[in-house]
Structure formats: C-alpha cells, structure tokens
Amino acid sequence: MMRVYNLKTNRIKNPMGFVINKPKLSWLVESDTAKHQVAAQVEISADINFENIIFDSGKRTDIDSISYSPQVELKPRTRYYWRVRVWGDDGSEAVSEAAWFETSKMDEPWKAKWITPDFDPSVHPVVFTDFSIERDVADARAYVCGLGLYEMSVNGEKTGDEYLAPGLVAYDKWIPYQTYDITSQLKKGINTAEFLLGNGWYKGRYGLNRKQPFRYGNEFALICEIHITYQDGTADVIYTDTSWKARKSKVIDSGIYDGEIYDDTFCDDAVYPVRIADLDVNKLEPRRSPGIKIKERIKPAEIIRTPEGETVIDMGQNMVGWLEFTNRAPKGAEIMLQFGEVLQDGNFYRDNLRTAKCEFHYISDGKVKKVRPHFTFYGFRYVKLTKWEGEVNPEDFTGLVLYSDLERTGNITTDNSLVNRLFLNALWSQKGNFLDVPTDCPQRDERMGWTGDAQVFSGAAAFNMDVFAFFGKYLYDLKQEQKARGGNVPVVVPAHDVKQNGACGWGDAAVIIPWNMYLHYGDVSILEQQYKSMKGWVDYIKSKDDAAGGRRLWLNDFHYGDWLSLDVEDPFNRFGGTEHAYLASAFYSYSAGIVSKAAKILNKKEDAEYYRKLSEEVKNAIRKEYFTPTGRLAVNTQTAYVIALYMDLVPDEWKERVAFELRKKLKETKYHLRTGFLGTPYLCRVLSEYGSNDIAYRLLTNTDYPGWLYPVTMGATTIWERWNSMLPDGKVSDTGMNSFNHYSYGSIVEWIYRNAAGIQPVEDAPGFRRFRLKPQPHYLLKSLDAEFLSPAGKIISRWNINENGSVSFYFRIPFNTTAELVLPDTEGTGLEGVHELECGEYTYTYMPKRPYKKMYGTDTPMREIYENERAKEIVTAYLSEMAGWMLFPMFAGERSIRDFVREGLLQIDEKTLKEIDEKLSKVTVE
Hints:
Layout: E1 2-9, E2 25-31, E3 37-45, E4 53-56, E5 79-88, E6 93-95, E7 99-102, E8 115-117, E9 125-133, E10 137-147, E11 149-154, E12 157-158, E13 162-163, E14 175-181, E15 189-198, H1 200-203, E16 221-230, E17 235-239, E18 245-248, E19 251-255, E20 259-263, E21 272-276, E22 284-286, E23 292-298, E24 302-305, E25 311-327, E26 334-340, E27 342-344, E28 347-349, E29 359-363, E30 369-371, E31 378-387, E32 397-404, E33 410-414, H2 417-433, E34 434-435, E35 437-438, H3 451-464, H4 468-483, H5 509-521, H6 525-547, H7 580-601, H8 605-626, H9 638-646, H10 652-668, H11 680-689, H12 693-701, H13 709-713, H14 748-756, E36 759-761, E37 770-773, E38 783-790, E39 793-801, E40 807-822, E41 834-846, H15 862-866, H16 869-883, H17 889-892, H18 897-902, H19 910-920
Parallel strand pairs: 14-22, 20-29, 37-40
Antiparallel strand pairs: 1-2, 3-4, 3-5, 5-6, 5-7, 8-21, 9-15, 9-18, 10-14, 10-16, 11-12, 11-15, 13-23, 16-17, 18-21, 19-20, 23-32, 24-25, 25-30, 25-31, 25-32, 26-29, 26-31, 27-28, 33-38, 34-35, 36-37, 38-39, 39-40, 40-41
C-alpha cells in the first residue's frame, strides 16, 4: 500500500494569504512495497473537484517531492487546489487528498485606508463598522493589519485561531497583513466587524533602551478590506475609511514587558470618529511566517503556600503564553497575577525580570467566565495570586502555551532520564522563544531576536521542528535591516532601537542560517531570497579588513566573542577568553566559504571562485598569524581549538595535534567545558569527529557544574542562559542578566541527532534525499532512539548496547531516499566500509573490537589509560622498564597496548596481556 500525505506549499500546510508568488510544493510518501519513485504527476485546479485544471505536469520522472515548482500564473485572492499522483518501482501508484493554497492581494491596490481613532492615542480602542448583507454569501475574506497588535471579531465571535498578530517585524521597512476566511461568521442582515487593538512591539515599551523606548509608531492604526462574494456571482468590498467608528476598550493598558490591565466593568457608550492615519499603504506585504497560536494547554502541577504566606501556582513547566482562569469574583473585585520563573527560599521570585512587571490585572464584571490576556505574553513557571477572590481551585486554571504554528519533526529518547529531560528542555526553550521571531528569552525586558542565538541554534531547531517558513521570514527582516546598513547585519533582528554593528557569530547569521535551511530542506529558494544578504555580510567584513590594511584578518572591531564562556577569571567578564580577532577571522573565512558554495549552487560561477579564494586567503592569514610552523595554536582555549577544527582552519598534517591539544585542555578541567556561545555548539561535534567521542559523551552526561545536566539536576525544565544561572544552593547567580529560558546551549541536541544518532544531511543532496548515517554509540548511554521527519520522510536511528558489550542498531530509511551507512568499530566483523541503504528497515548486531562496556583492557586507547590513575599504575608496572617512553600520551594517542604488540613495538606474550586485561577489567572508570 502506498500513501501520499503531508502536502505543503512553501513548507506550510494549506497557507492562506502568504507570499506565494512562486509556489514550492512538497509532500511525503510511504509504501509497504515500493522503494523508489519512478514518476509523479502534479495537478492544480481552480476547484476542489479538479474539473477546472489550470496546471498538469503530466507523468514525469524528474519531479522531486522535496521541492517542486510548477510554472503557473496565479491570480490575486484565489484558492488553488492541488494533488499529487506517485508511481512506485513495484508498479504501485497512489494519489493524495487535495491540498490548497490561497493567494493574497498580491499586487492588487488597496481600496482601504489606514485609520486611527480620533481620541487620545494612549487609550486602547475598539475600531468597528456595521454592514448589511441581503444575499446568500458564497465566500468572504478579510485582509487585515492592526497596529500594534489586534484581535478581530465578527458578530461577537473571534476570527481565526491566532494571537498577537501581526507579530514582530521591522515595521519601518514593511508591514505584513493577514487573511481570514470569515464566510461562516457572516449572516443576513446587519453584521458587525470589530477590532481590538493593543500596543505590542510597534507602539509599546520595547527595546534595549527601557527608559526612553524607541517606538515604530505613536498611535493605533487599522487597515481592513472585507471581500464578499455572493452566490449569485456579485461581490462587495467593505473597507476602512472615515465612515468607521471607534470606542474605548476595556483593555486599559497593555505592553509586551509589563502585561495587561483589563477592566470588565468599564463601560463607555460614546462613539468616536476615526481619521486617516499617516501610514504608507505601500509598505503592506502578504505575511511570511506562520501565526502564533495556542499550541498546548497544561494544568497546574500544584498550588503552593510559600514561607512568606504567598499563594503561588506551579505549572510544573517553564512555559510561554498565558494563564487562563475562570472568574468567579464579584463585580468590581480586582484579580492580580504576577509571573516568575523560579522560587528563592521557597518564595515567589522575579528579580531576574529586571524592569518587566509581567502582571495581569483583571477587574471583574461579576460573571462566571474564562479570562485571559490579549496583547502580552509571559515567560513563567510560577504565578503569584497577588490579589484573588475566594477559594483557589486548580481546575480553574489552564496554561495556554503560545508559539508559532510549527510542525514538530524530531524526537530523542535514551536510557538516561536526565538526558531525556535535557532534550525536552531544549524543545521547550524552542517553543517559548519561537514566537514569530527567534528571541533570546521570553520573560525579562528584552525578548529580542538576537542573531547570534538564532544562528547557533538554527541547526538543532531544524531537526526539532519544520522551521523553513519561520526562518524565511526572520531572514527577510534581516535582509531589510541590512539594506539600510551597507551590508552590516545588526546584532538584533528586527533591529528596533539597536544601532550596534554586527559582530562575528552574530552577523554571520546572515550566511549560516540560510545555509542550514538549504541543507535541511533542499529548497534553493532560501538561497535565492538571501544571496545578496549573504554576500553583503561577507563584503562588509572584507571592507573592514581592507580599511585595516587588507591583511585578510578581521581586526579591531567590537565583538561579543565567546559570550558567557567560563575561561576567564573575572566573573563579570562576559566576553570570553578567546581572542576576538581570531574568532572574527575564523567566521570571516567560514562565511566566505559558504557564500562560495551558495554561489556555485545558484550558478554564479565568478562569485563562487571569488569567495572561495577569499575564504582561502583568510584561512592562510589565520594560519600565518595563529599557528606555529609545527602546528601549535597560539590561542589556548577550548573554543579556539574547537573553532579551528570545525571551520577547517587546520592543515591536515596538524589536525591530530590540535585535536590532542583540545583533549589535553579538557583534561585540565577534569572534562568540564569552558566554552560559551560560539564554542559550545561545535564542541561535542568536533570531539566525536576527531577521535574523542568518549569525551563528548562525558561532557553530555556530567551532572555537576558546568555542564548540560547540571541544570536538569537543579529542576530546570528549559535551557538556562548561563551554565550556573542557579547556584547549587538554589540561589540565582546574577539578577542583571539571567534567563531561565534561553535556547542557545540547547544546540547540544544537534550533536545528538548528527553524531550520537548519526543522522547527517549532505551538501550535494540537501533535504535528506540522500543522507549519511554514522551513529557513534558510547557506554555512557546504553540506548538511544532518534526519530526525524525529514523533508524526504521519517528517518529512524536506534542503537542499544547489550549486556555482553555488543551493540544493536535499527534504521528506517524513507521512501525514495538513500542512506550512506557507516557503522562504528566494525574491524573484523565483516561490516566495514560504507553501506548503501535504500528504503526499508535494517538491523545489525555485532561485537565491536572493544566491547561497549564500562571497562578497561589492553585494547583501550593509551589516552584513556592515562586519564585513570589506577589504570595507569597497572600498565606502568608492567611496561615502564621496556617501553615507558611509548606511554607518553601524545605519542600513544588512540593506540592501545595490543596495537603496539601488533606493530612489533612491544614484546609481550599473550599470557601477560591476559593478566593485564584481568587487572584492568576491575578498574572503575572515573
């Protein structure tokens, strides 16, 4: 049986009113018997019955389900239905259910005008109009944007299921409008359309300057066109003009940072006129990102009575969104909620929120009903009932979890419950911070789209969720901001009031994020959209380089460096111990290399060669400046070694030495990381790829500070901003800059997907049409199960370490894909080399040369022997007289005693080897 499903247009299911000038269609196929697609056919119709087909590809062999772009002329405000027929290599075929996409107004001019209430702009309004319908309605759409934020209702019923529209964008560059199907909300007779408006990011207190915040606009504004098509074929357009009216809202105040005040007793029957607002209609564009929705609902874990006598709700999970409650308070009574992330000494705490009030005030009208805010959001686990009437019933409260409407695509489980919780923490931080833009944190007076945070997490994000459209919109904003800055990328996007020049690792988001999206989704349109931006960032760096003498190094500028790393003595130094010019130059070379690859894909041959050469010139300058003739790296930090290896700055002949120096550096810290924002994402990946997979697992599973599992042992349910955001005694370490929901260090999950599970995209077949499977188990985890719904289908990689030290693998390869499987430690098993796997399920069990058990033996690498004092004593007692010099770790490296015996460098009989084995097997791994 074959099934065609998960149809998407521009990576969105049934998008309405998005930018769809060139639709990119994608779908998935599952089959019980077929392994490959031999042909496919795509049909697009003007009707759901496919009686009016406007495009038919015919049966073709070159149609790719990852991204197919039909050549079709699209009309404004039109719904198109499409379906796919697929033929398999076994003769089977299947046709999908119909999917659809609906175009926006496209280039159609607006009849509507921007309007604003003609009263005090600090007063929250409701803007409305009445209109009459006398005929049967066939179809009705509303094309809307309200500033700062808005909620639309028709005849008293909320329109749509998204919130905080139109979201956060560079409002001074472009303004997105949304499209709603309101057909079912209309009735014959008088209809009323209402728009509740709030401050939001556009008009409220927001940005890095908290005292005098920058505002995109100082007054509320609305634009709306309602297009109605009747059953008789006639049509009407209702649109905003000065005939519309306004009244004062029950929302007394609202703000992203401070919360909301809602007075349900407020009643002002006065009707006020509106006037034309001074806003440019030409800035309006169709939306690009999925809407913010209530994605989950969670009930409180418990009600706490604190030592200070406070009543606090514990949601059991640090979440982002609202607390909805059932109002039972008498008329005029005030309910006040305050939101926080952690407790201190068992009491409610919120000092780390800085100036953000994070409150919700509600004045009751005396009616029993569900109440929630409208124009704010909170990052919280704990809610203090500062003012409350009557009994506190847990059933009256529900956490409404808000984030962008993104499909979940990845999952990881292991035998280690702490690692499982770490994965969930990273996932929850992604949920909480993927609220229309990838923010740094969702709770304090910041919540901004920091480019460095987004860049380091973008790969992990693409495994966890389908983020193609989400990042496509973020990168579109980045490109708009960059245009006004001569190629410079601001450290925050949208930039709002941030004037600061781009820094290495932050500005490189312009290059790294689109490249990651291309690798994961195989859709070249992201490179087409962002190529000028990618190129512009590297050109900007080169202009700074040229101005400083053209040494092909990036010198002198401000950088955040290895932000919040632990390799500096001064705890107040947040910039890390790795030289900034070294890091900046490394990213200079790395980004130039990516631009070269993107240019080659886009058939820009001259650019490809130019940026390849530039990347090599920078790389050579780095080698000349920072490496000795024997390969010693002058910058002696964990991050420096990691970056050198990951970004291919090290000549082949020196890589073993640099990898050894990284191991030595980690040994100095008893195998604890000292890396920050720039080194951490690549740390475990480099270790696994350069012969130190054991150290990568050790770093993952360390439960003390600093490490990924330390916060988990402290009860964290999201990723922290700092390795020690909370100290072992339960105290918050720094109130000035300390978020308990900050996804950057959650980038470790990319290592779990890529290296531990071994699921890796490849550059010459992006989107996982072909991919590499190279799992790297280690006994510190006994089992791992990774599932990933790639753009080509579901990939499963599982392994289990058995009691006898053998290892078992299970892989699932999707329909019409090929995997290059490389199994670990296969010497002598007959499974060596690369295995080409096509669609299907595969299992392998074998005993590696060195069993995956927690033990030492004569086949243990000497490097590991030297890391354990007892093991070293045993080996030295046997070998010091005859070959002590060979035990020097740098010389021995990954070679074991048995390797030396095989090479003829040690003369030891089998009986002695077994005696050493027996003694080593009793040593406990430290």
